[in-house]
Each structure stands twice: as C-alpha cells, then as structure tokens.
C-alpha cells in the first residue's frame, strides 16, 4: 500500500512538472523554440508577402495561365503550405505568401523567369557557345522529381528519382538511347544544375540521378526540376507586405473565445463526471499547451482551416474522455468497485478510441500527402491533435485518475453511476429520419437551379473559387486594419449593395493604401457598382488607384487534388472499418452516414447562401472527421453487444437499439462540449468567423443526429435486408 501511494505521489509530481514545463516553454521558450506567441500565422490571420507578375507572352490560353498558377503554387509550397495564387486583370498573376519576414530572399529564390531544359552533348555545345540549339526536353515534360536516400553495397547514396509525362518519356527514351555512355545536361535559368552520365537507354518514363554529394543537394536539384519551366514568361511588377484577410480582430477574438470555450467545457465535464471530469480538465490543459508548442516547434503555419483542425481534435480529446468515463459509470452501476470500474472503463473504451482516432488519422495523412494549401494546413493540425489527444486520454488521464484513487479518493460518489439506459426504438425511428433527411437533401439541391435563375448563381461562391474584384485605394491617412474594417468596409458594402462578409481587407505596409477584395462588381450599365463605390470612397477621402477582376485562388488542380484526397481517404477508412469490424457493411454504412452529414451541411450552405470558399472546405473536412468518429463509437458498442448478446436470443434490431441507448449520453455530452466551444467562437467572432462557426455548429448537430438516428438503423438495414443473415425475430 505504501508503495502504491508513493508511486501515486510520483505520478502527480511528474504531471505537475510536465505541465509546468509546458507553461514555461509556452511563455518563455527554450532556445529559439516553444514560444506560443511566435506560432506562424497564415495570410488570413497575419498577412504576408504579396507579389504580382506580369505575363510577357503576347499569346496564351487559359490553360497556360492555369498551368503557370499551378507551378507557382508548387514553388511556394517549399516555403509555406498556406498561400494564395490568382489571376489579376487580364495579364497579371498575384501570389500571396503568409508570415513572410525574408521577402527579398523568397522573391530571389522563386526565380520565376527560370527555364528548365535537358540537352544532349551536341546541343549543349551549341548552347554554351551562344548559338541556336534544340532542347531534348523541357520542364513541361517532367511529371515529378523526388530526393531519396538509398542503401548500396558501399553505404548509402543520395538520388533524385525522375518521372516523365507520356510525351516526356518518349523524348527521354530517344535522347538516352542515342547517348549511352555520354552526358545529358540539365540546364536551369542558364546554369547547368546537373550533368548525369547515361548508363543505359531509359524508355519506361522513370529515371534516377545518383551519386549526389548530400541529401540537401539532392533535395535542391529535385525542387529545381520539379518546379522547372513555367508555361508563361513572367516579370515581377510589384511586391508588398499586406495585412491579414480576416483582420486583426480575428486573432484576438478567436483566442478569447477558445479560452472561454475550453473553460466552459471544463465546467460541463466536472458537473457531469465529478472527479474524472477534474482529471480530464487538467489533461486537456496539458493537451492544449502541447498542441500549441508542437505547432511552434515544427513551424506549422496556422490559418482558419488549421483552427478548425484544432477544434475537431479538441472535440475528439473530450470525446475520448467521455467514452471512458461513461464506461466507468456503467461498471459502477453494475456493482464494480471504483478501482475495478476504472480499469474496466479504460479497457472497454480502448477499442472505440483507437478505431475512431485511427480512422480520422487515416483521413488526415491522406489529405496531408495529396492535399495542397488549405487542405494540407487542416490535415497537419488535425494529425497533431489526434496523436496528442490519444496520449493525454489513454496515458495522462489514466495515470492521474489511478494515482488519485491510490491516495484514497475512491468514494463512488466522486464518480457517479450511469442512469438506466432508455428503451427507444431507434431502428423504427431511423426509417422516418432517413426519409426526412432524404427529402431535405433533395429539396436543398433542387434550390440550386432556382437560385441560379433568381440570384445569378446556384451557390454563393467566394472569391476563392469564383474570383471577384480587387480594389486598391489610397487614403489621406494611414488606417489600421481594424479601423478599415469598421469604417470603410460598411461604406463599400452599402454602395455596392453587398454583404460586409463578402469584403476582405488588406493593408499595404509603408503606404496609405488598402486592398479590398469583393465579389465581382459591375462597372457599366444602369446597375453599375464601381462608380458608386468610387464615389463612396471619395466621401471618406479615398481614391481608387487600381481595380481589376481577379480569378479564384483555388486552382482547378488544387480542387482536383482535394476531391481525390477526400475520395481516397474515404475508401481507406471504409477498408479499415471493414477489417477492424470484420464486416464490410460497417464500413459501407459509415461512409453512407458520412455522405449524409456532408450533404446536409452543404444544404445549409445552399439555403442560407453562405460563402463557399476555403472555409467551406475546412468545414466539410471537419464534419468528415467528426462524423466518422461518432459513428465508430456506435459501431464499437454494436460489435461488443453482438458478442455479448448473440443473435439467437436477441435479434439485430434489439442489439442496435440497445447499443444506441447505451451510448446516447455519450453522443449528447460530446456534441454539447464541442458545440459550446464553437458557439462561443460564433458569439465573439468577426463576420467571416461567425459564418464559419455557424456551419460547424450545424455540422455538430447534424453529426449527433445521424450518429443516433441514421447510422445504427442503416447498418441494421444492410445487415438484415442486404446480407444473407436475417434477424431471428423479425
């Protein structure tokens, strides 16, 4: 007993020291790392570098512009995962890179005027002599380039693995076949960056450049080849340091809302779960600090979608504790001692927590690998949050709770007992809920053509997708971003007849200029908006210096990558669930429920005419993670009850109903805690934050509804109507 108490004291001391170290690091840092206030913020929260290039080519197509934007995105990806690239006017392309402190260095390294070519020996000689030559391949023939470290008989070697397009593979096959034993020169920006010797003809579209001095050299070469020649010739015409697109208030209000929201979650957890709620709250404090410190340590750029990932991961961290504590209450209600109940509670909750988090982590990893921009930022914060939430829930909470029990806090009144599970027939109700959901989804999507006819567009696409108008105005004084948001934005909105939420603001460092980005404004005809805006700005001593239409910053390639990433993640989640639950119907019904939740939230966007842009993508991804986790909890209990109750004495309908009734309080409490956090963000946030929070709240409610009323009944239908086995007592 003395040993147990001594170990308990050591656990508590270790936790206090760890928490203290996290707090110290967050506020004072260790070396040049750790300070929470130095977390990299994205363009929407902090601002960054804006550089505009002018297209020099006389003739070019929309495809050329799209390809150029995509390659610029790939270049910028080396410096930040959060960026914005869009066409401005008819002949300019603008790139915005967040959190930039070394603008000149980045501008120099982007080297947008560079040209990538592969030259055989004869044409290399002509090139070096300044004579006319013909390149064997150029940057458009390259599909990919990746640096690698490979093991060899004599040690390790640094390589660059090349892949070519179909046409590029043919060209490369021709040049290597004709030059075996000779050198092929890779020239970038009029400099030879590599001169590998051809060892054999390469016709399969894959090649390797080996024997590179260091991995850094290999990575540099791979990057140079990968981002090679741009389809268009560009010339830099201006660069500015711009302010945050969401405004300065967004950070302050989001931080305050986060603190208040977490504090309210602590109160809810303590009221419902008593002593375990106190322990969970302490663990969540540590968890939140660890997330912030990890973001800083790995220099991860935090944007609004990243905040969504953190909110989701906090919700899952709370959910893990709710699942555990609900199990503990059930064990106490069954007559177990406190110590037995805690041990069994953690043990029985383990599979649900692991499966729920691994499933969401699969999605995060796929999005991280294949996504770009906003998608990748969301995935990073979500992956970090998931890993840390599992550690805090299954390790920190468990050790702390057991330590307190060992010190004598083992009165059952400190833990509470589970109430008797209800007897609601969710399978029966599921039929009606499914019909209601289907009607709502169909009706919502049917409104798209109606809106297209009456409002000019089926969806309220933001400038991220649809583009719009960029207005650069100069004023008689230097406005802060907050002043511009509160005094000038309402003037523009009233003059143009648009919502304030449709206007983003960026200040330009060192000038009195402000950039306003809005939905596309008309500048001719009876309902012309631009003259009205110009007159309104003159009334606040502002002069329009430049006004151009801009393209969407979310390129076609980025959208394609996002869709492919989500589809691949969904397929992998289905496979994982099917394997873990030994029944493909679990995976199929989980995916169908997930599609239901996303479709329902999208209907909210349609009916309320909410802005569909990057924040919409972040919201949908959050709903995917939240939905699949809630579904796993139900399925885990069904799996357990099938084993415990069997299907001879109890049919599947009774098993499903019992499982949902048993997990009903978990569904409500988890949804409540996550909803409270987002609700505070909605109450306190700026206009764009409010819209984002509103859709998240809708998603949380819809996710709770589907997990209780749709998921279980859907599996029951597939199990009994589509499978070979039938319920015993239909």
Structure in words:
By secondary structure, the chain is of the alpha+beta class. Strands 2-3-1-11 form a 4-stranded antiparallel beta sheet, with helices on one face. It has a 4-stranded antiparallel beta sheet with strand order 5-4-8-9. The chain has a 4-stranded antiparallel beta sheet with strand order 13-14-12-15, covered by helices on one side. The protein has helices at residues 2-28, 62-76, 103-110, 121-128, 166-177, 215-226, 248-273, 275-297, 304-333, 338-370, 374-406, 426-454, 463-466, 481-496, 530-538, 556-580, 584-608, 614-645, 652-684, 687-722; strands at residues 48-55, 84-88, 92-98, 116-119, 137-138, 142-152, 155-164, 185-188, 191-194, 206-212, 234-242, 468-475, 504-507, 513-518, 542-550. The longest helix is centred in the C-terminal third of the chain and has 36 residues, at 687-722. Helix content is 60%, strand content 13%. The model is unreliable at 725-730 (pLDDT under 50).
What would the keywords be for this entry?
four-stranded antiparallel β-sheet; 730 residues; alpha+beta; 60% helix
Question: What is the residue-averaged pLDDT?
Answer: 81
Residue ranges: pLDDT <50 for 5 or more in a row? 725-730
Give the helix/strand class.
alpha+beta
Termini separation? 55 Å
Outline: globular
- Give me the Rg, rounded: 29 Å
Q: How much of the residues is beta strand, in percent?
A: 5-15%
The strand order across the widest sheet is: 2-3-1-11
Number of strands: 15
Biggest β-sheet, characterized? 4 strands, antiparallel
If helices are DSSP runs of H or I spanning 4 or more residues, what is the number of helices?
A: 20
- Overall helicity: 55-70%
């Amino acid at each position: 007993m003395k040993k147990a108490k001594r170990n308990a004291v050591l656990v508590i001391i270790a936790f206090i020291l760890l928490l203290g170290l996290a707090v110290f690091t967050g506020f004072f840092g260790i070396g040049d790392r750790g300070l929470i206030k130095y977390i990299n913020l994205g363009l929407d929260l902090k601002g960054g570098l804006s550089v505009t290039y002018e297209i020099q080519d006389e003739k070019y197509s929309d495809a050329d512009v799209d390809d150029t934007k995509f390659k610029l995105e790939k270049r910028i990806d080396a410096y930040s995962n959060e960026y914005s690239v869009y066409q401005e006017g008819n002949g300019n392309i603008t790139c915005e890179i967040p959190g930039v402190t070394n603008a000149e260095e980045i501008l120099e390294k982007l080297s947008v005027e560079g040209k990538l070519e592969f030259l055989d020996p004869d044409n290399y000689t002509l090139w070096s002599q300044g004579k006319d030559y013909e390149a064997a391949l150029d940057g458009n023939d390259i599909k990919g380039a990746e640096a690698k470290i490979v093991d060899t008989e004599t040690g390790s070697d640094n390589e660059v693995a090349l892949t070519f397009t179909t046409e590029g593979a043919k060209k490369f096959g021709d040049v290597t076949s004709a030059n075996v034993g000779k050198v092929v020169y890779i020239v970038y920006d009029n400099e030879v960056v590599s001169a590998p010797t051809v060892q054999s003809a390469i016709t399969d579209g894959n090649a390797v450049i080996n024997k590179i001095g260091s991995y850094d050299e290999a990575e540099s070469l791979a990057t140079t080849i990968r981002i090679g020649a741009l389809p268009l010739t560009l010339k830099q015409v201006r660069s500015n340091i711009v302010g945050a697109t969401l405004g300065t208030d967004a950070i302050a209000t989001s931080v305050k809302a986060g603190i208040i929201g977490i504090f309210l979650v602590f109160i809810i957890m303590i009221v419902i779960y008593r002593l375990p709620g106190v322990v969970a709250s302490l663990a969540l404090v540590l968890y939140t600090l660890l997330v912030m410190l990890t973001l800083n340590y790995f220099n991860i750029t935090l944007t609004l979608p990243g905040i969504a990932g953190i909110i989701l991961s906090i919700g899952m961290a709370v959910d893990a504790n709710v699942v555990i504590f609900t199990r503990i209450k059930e064990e106490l209600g069954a007559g177990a001692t406190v110590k037995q109940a805690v041990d069994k509670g953690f043990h029985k909750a383990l599979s649900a927590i692991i499966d729920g988090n691994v499933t969401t982590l699969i999605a995060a990893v796929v999005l991280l690998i294949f996504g770009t921009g906003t998608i990748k930022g969301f995935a990073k914060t979500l992956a970090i949050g998931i890993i840390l939430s599992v550690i805090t829930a299954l390790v920190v909470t468990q050790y702390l709770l057991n330590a307190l029990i060992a010190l004598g806090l083992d009165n059952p009144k400190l833990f509470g007992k589970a109430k008797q599970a209800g007897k609601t027939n969710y399978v029966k109700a599921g039929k009606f809920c499914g019909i209601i959901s289907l009607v709502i989804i169909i009706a919502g999507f049917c409104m798209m053509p109606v809106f297209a006819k009456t409002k000019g567009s089926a969806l309220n696409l933001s400038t991220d997708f649809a583009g719009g108008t960029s207005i650069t105005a100069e004023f008689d004084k230097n406005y802060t971003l907050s002043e511009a948001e509160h005094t000038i934005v309402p003037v523009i909105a009233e003059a143009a007849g648009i919502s304030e939420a449709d206007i983003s603001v960026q200040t330009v460092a060192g000038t009195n200029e402000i950039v306003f980005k809005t939905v596309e404004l008309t500048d001719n005809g009876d309902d012309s908006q631009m003259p009205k805006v110009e007159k309104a700005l003159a009334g606040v001593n502002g002069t329009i210096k430049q006004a151009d239409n801009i393209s969407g910053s979310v390129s076609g390639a980025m959208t394609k990558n996002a869709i492919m990433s989500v589809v691949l993640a969904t397929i992998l989640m289905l496979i994982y669930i099917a394997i873990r639950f030994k029944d493909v119907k679990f995976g199929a019904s989980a995916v169908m429920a997930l599609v239901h939740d996303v479709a329902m939230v999208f209907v909210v966007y349609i009916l309320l005419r909410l802005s569909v842009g990057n924040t919409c993508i972040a919201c949908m991804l959050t709903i995917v993670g939240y939905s699949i986790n809630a579904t796993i909890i139900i399925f885990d209990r069904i799996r357990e009850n099938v084993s415990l109750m069997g299907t001879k004495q109890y049919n599947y309908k009774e098993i499903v109903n019992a499982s949902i009734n048993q997990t009903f309080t978990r569904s409500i409490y988890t949804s409540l805690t996550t909803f409270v956090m987002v609700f505070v963000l909605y109450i306190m946030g700026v206009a764009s934050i409010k819209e984002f929070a509103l859709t998240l709240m809708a998603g949380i409610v819809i996710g709770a509804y589907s997990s209780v009323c749709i998921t279980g009944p859907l599996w029951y239908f597939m199990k009994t109507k589509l499978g070979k086995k039938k319920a015993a007592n239909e």
